[in-house]
Amino acid sequence: METRDYLRIRYSARLGAAPEAAEWREYRYAGASHHKQESVMRIEDLPREGGCRCNRVRLRVAHAPVMTMACHCTGCQKMSASAFSLSALFTADAFTVTQGSPVIGGLHGADRHYCCPHCMSWLFTRPHGIDGFVNVRTTMLDSAADFAPFMETWTCEKLPWALTPAVESFAQLPAPEDFPRLMQAYAELTSH
Ligand SMILES: [Zn+2]
Ligand SMILES: [Zn+2]
């Protein structure tokens, strides 16, 4: 089996699996699941629009993301008021704020977390040192279901019952040299 098919089946199975059945090996040959779930991974109909809880800030992404992620770190647990944050990483040229004026939130540190000034929804992050990318909070997109997380980070801090369909897991963050491989695998999964 080619690596791409292997990964796709593994990912499809996890997207469709009940939590107790999330162990991918059980689904290694689940071809039916693969076909049923393929549309979940396909990202078409671009550009996509999005907005905050009160809709005073509106967003647009013009291209598909280069990566989709869940982060289990305690900082993301606080900021998302949930078990983990969800995000989709876009090249900066693909991203536009089409309405409203987001303000800085979170720790006001090197990573710039932008929020709606009225409803305070956490909208997107401009990570320190990588100006070429914007990390958009997936649930701010009007079609969040299409952006299932491909990788998850900071599992060392995750809540013990928190599960995602991610097929790549990292105790903290992947090494910088891992990113080309991860982006390539994600692109191949979502490019059909
Ligand atoms: Zn708002
Ligand atoms: Zn985090």
From TrEMBL:
The record, for InterPro entries, names: CENP-V/GFA, Mss4-like_sf
GO molecular function per UniProt: carbon-sulfur lyase activity; metal ion binding
Give the keywords, sorted: Lyase, Metal-binding, Zinc
Q: Does the keyword Metal-binding apply?
A: yes
Entry-linked Gene3D superfamilies: glutathione-dependent formaldehyde- activating enzyme (gfa) (3.90.1590.10)
Q: Where is the CENP-V/GFA domain?
A: 48-151
Q: Does the keyword Lipid metabolism apply?
A: no
Query: Known Pfam families for this protein?
Result: GFA (PF04828)
Family label: Belongs to the Gfa family.
Supply the name of the protein.
Answer: Uncharacterized conserved protein
Q: Which organism is it from?
A: Pseudomonas rhodesiae
